[in-house]
Every structure is written in C-alpha cells, then in structure tokens.
Design goal:
The chain is mostly helical and about 475 residues long. The protein has helices at about 15-30, 35-40, 45-70, 75-85, 90-100, 105-135, 140-165, 175-195, 200-215, 220-255, 260-290, 295-300, 305-315, 320-325, 335-365, 370-395, 400-420, 435-460, 465-480. α6 (about 105-135) packs across α7 (about 140-165).
Length: about 475
C-alpha cells in the first residue's frame, strides 16, 4: 500500500547489497535453531524436496513461462523458476506451533526450507549467467554445481569451527551477540571470495554453531541473544516486503505495454503451477522409492497419506524469493515481469495455502504425536535425578547448611514426582517444569508481586532502580513457566 502513495522517491537497490544484507542474517538463525539429529534422520525426504522438487519446479516453470508468456525468453523463465521455487516455512512453522503437527512433518518442512534456498540460489546463478551469455552446458553446469555446493559446505564448516574457537573463551554477552551477528556475513563473504556458495556456507556455519553453542555460551548470553535474533528476523522480513512495495509503481509503469488482464492471467498461471507442481512431485517422491526399494520400506514404512498431504500443501513462498528477485540486475531481460510475478506468487501462496492450512490440518484430523514432549519429560526427569544425586554427594562431603540442602532437595524431589506422575491423559506430559495447577498459582502470585512493587514505586517508597531489579527477577520467574495450551 505504501508504494501506491504518490510522490514517493524511486528506490533503486544494488543487487549485490540485497544478497549481502538480507540473506545471511535470515538463513543463519534458521540453521542455528535446526535440530541436527532430526535433520540427519530425515535427509532423504528433505533432499528430495530441497533439491529434486526445486530443480523440477525450475524446469517446469521455465518452459511454462516461455510458452505462455508473450516475449519471455526461456532463460528468463528458468530465472523466474529459480526465484519462486523455494518455499518459505516461516508461515507454516507459525501454524504448526499453534495447531500442533507430528515432529517428522515439522522437521521435513524446516529442513527443506533450509536447503532449498541454497539449491534455488545456486541454480539462479547459473540461470542468470546463461541468460547473459546465451549459452548453457549441462556437463559444465553440473560440475560447477558440485564444486560450488561442496565448496560452500566445507568453507562454512571451517568458518564455523574458527568462529567457535574465537567465541569459546569470551564471557561477555554484548560481545558474543555482536560476534554472532557478524558470523553469517563472515561466512557469506568468505564463500563469495572463493567462488563457492555463500548460502550453503551460511547454512553450514549455522548448523555447526547450533550443535556447539549450547556447550560454550552462558545463560546470560542465551537469554539476551534469542530476542536479538528474533528482532533482526522480524525487521528484515518486514523491510524487504516494504522495499518490494515501494518498487511496485515502477514495475507497473514498465509493464504498461501489457494489459492488466494479461498480467493477471500470467500471475494466475504461474501461481497455480507452483502449487500443483509441488503436489505432483511430493506423492510420487514419497511412495515410489518404497515400491522400488523394498529394504527402504522395511526401514521407513509408508507414511500416512494425510501427513504427505500436509507436506504437499505447505508450499508458501516468502522473503528469500523476494530477495532473489530484487537482486536481479537492472537491465536483466524481463526483470519487471519477474518481480511482478514473484510478488503475486508469494501473495497467492500465502493467501490460498497459508489461510487454508489450519482448516486442512483439522479436517484431516492430524495432531501432534507428542514425540518432543516425551523426550522433554524424560530429559527433565534425568536432569533432576542427577541434581538430587549431586546434592547427596555434597551433603556427605561438605559442611553446607543442612537447611539449604533440605530445601533444595525438596524442590527437586517435587519436580521429579510431578514428572513421574504426568501422563498424556492429563495433558501434562513434558509440557513444562511444573504441573498446570502449580503454574496457575505461580502466575497469580507473581501478578500480586508485580502489582505490589509498582504500588511501592508509585508511593515513592522504592525508587525505579529497585523496581527494575525486582521486576527482572519476576519476569525471569514468569518466563520459566510454560503454557499448557493456547
């Protein structure tokens, strides 16, 4: 809407700056918070989607656009296909976290969104080069693809290891957070300097750090870093949509030689194509390998068709496609139409697939398999039992206050008792450190504490510094309470 305001200045973006300032800080946290264990366990379906489906979409969209869109070169069609081929799982994950999906579906969607960006953007590089030179060699492109991909992964792991060694001895949250913000740019720029994939380098660095960071960061750093990265992601996602909005009038002006019905037809055709192509790919890619390779079926039985349907329908496009479209050179043939189609595909998939996904999940009767909750309960139980054992060692070997030891032991034993008595029927399984009734009482008492100190401040019995100190402790206590349901 902002772009429709008359008199706004024309925004011109440097393509290199778009990739540099938007992609690394968006890809890095996505990799950072990905479970490496779950990612590795689902490599086959992830790569079938992130590599196979992306290449299938690029080729199919390329030929469709070249055939149906007037004066649209085949090379430009492949560029369009590369830009709109990678789904963005941000909206899907938001829905999944609210409605609850089996963990494997979430892992596959997250893993796909992590790797498919790299596949699409590496393919985009070759498509743009082909459009510029007018030549394309499959053997040369395949060799370069392998070099760029493997080189990006190896360099990303190297950067991850080096930055890990640098950050490990540091115990200062502002410095550590600053280094974490700089890390994806270091990885991306290093990869670009060596001519390998900067996207895969950033993803590899993020996965490496996601595995090692819990070992060397302090609680202070983790508590402060998480909201910083959330804010960075939120601002960048909003800013890039703002930029494309500011360019809409200029794009439409350059497309004035095409009629509005014609543009809407192109937008409808490409939007429907990316939705249908995903469905066409997902079902055969899921079931055919199991029909051909019987041993695979023994290791990984046929998944429920309802689960496959959710994966096939969850294909919303997002910010990575926008960034890739904005990064096209100004003089690239068909750039304005590519930008227009990219924007309409994102809008169509977000509206059609995004808004319908909750209803489809409910209609199919898909629910959380609670695998994560069960693991969380078991981990909490073992951690609390280990803490009790440590308290017993301390009681035997030191002269600590018996009252303090007794109080702490009672707290841990109460947690263990609640965890042992929790079950799926009561909906308490692994949902938090405390039972639902305990949480309700704790929230009520914390609310009274907060209102009391505010009243003391308002009556000028305490000053604002004292208020903030106590309020911080109350906020941290409240943050420990886990909600059971929306």
């Amino acid at each position: 809407m902002l772009g429709l305001i008359p008199g706004l200045p024309r925004v011109v973006l440097d393509p290199e700056l778009v990739f540099l300032f938007f992609l690394p800080p968006l890809l890095y946290p996505a990799a950072l918070f990905t479970s490496w264990r779950d990612f590795r366990a689902n490599l086959r379906p992830i790569f079938l989607l992130a590599v196979g489906l992306v290449l299938f979409t690029i080729v199919s969209v390329g030929f469709l656009a070249h055939y149906f869109v007037e004066d649209f070169p085949l090379a430009a069609g492949f560029v369009l296909g590369a830009i709109i081929s990678p789904p963005d799982a941000i909206a899907a994950m938001a829905i999944a976290s609210r409605l609850g999906l089996p963990r494997r579906i979430i892992t596959i969607l997250e893993g796909e969104s992590l790797v498919n960006d790299a596949t699409a953007l590496v393919a985009l590089r070759f498509a743009v080069a082909s459009a510029a030179t007018g030549t394309f060699s499959l053997s040369h492109a395949s060799g370069q693809f392998l070099y760029v991909s493997l080189g990006g992964v190896l360099l990303g792991l190297a950067v991850g290891y080096i930055t890990f060694r640098i950050q490990k001895p540091i115990d200062d949250p502002p410095i550590e957070i600053t280094l974490s913000l700089l890390t994806p740019f270091v990885s991306y720029l290093s990869a670009e300097q060596f001519g390998v994939s900067g996207v895969l380098a950033v993803v590899s660095t993020g996965l490496y750090h996601g595995w090692r960071i819990p070992e060397f960061t302090t609680s202070r750093t983790r508590l402060q870093a998480a909201p910083v990265w959330e804010m960075v992601e939120f601002l960048l996602n909003g800013f890039i949509f703002l930029l494309i909005g500011l360019q809409v009038p200029e794009i439409l002006r350059h497309l004035a030689h095409r009629s509005l019905p014609q543009l809407f037809w192109y937008a409808f055709l490409i939007s429907v194509a990316v939705i249908v192509l995903r469905i066409i790919w997902v079902f055969p890619a899921t079931y055919l390998p199991r029909l051909i390779f019987r041993k695979m079926c023994a290791r990984d039985p046929y998944p429920n068709w309802r689960h496959v349907t959710i994966v096939a329908w969850t294909g919303m496009r997002g910010v990575v496609s926008l960034a890739a479209a904005l990064a096209l050179p100004e003089k690239f043939p068909g750039r304005d139409l590519i930008l227009f189609l990219t924007f309409t595909v994102i809008l169509a998939t977000l509206v059609i697939q995004g808004l319908s996904l909750p209803s489809i999940i409910r209609a199919l009767g898909i629910k959380d398999d609670r695998a994560t909750a069960r693991e969380e309960r078991e981990a909490r139980l073992r951690a609390n039992q280990a803490a009790v054992a440590r308290l017993e060692e301390i009681a035997r070997s030191t002269q600590n206050s018996p009252e303090a030891l007794l109080h702490m032991r009672a707290e841990y034993e109460d947690r263990i008792k609640q965890l042992q008595n929790s079950d799926e029927e009561t909906d308490d399984l692994g949902h938090g450190l405390y039972s639902a009734s305990y949480e309700a009482l704790a929230r009520d008492t914390l609310k009274v504490e907060r209102s009391t100190i505010l009243q003391l401040r308002n009556e000028e019995i305490i000053n604002d510094e004292v208020l903030r100190r106590i309020q911080k402790d109350i906020d941290l206590a409240e943050a420990r309470l886990r909600r059971h349901r929306d």
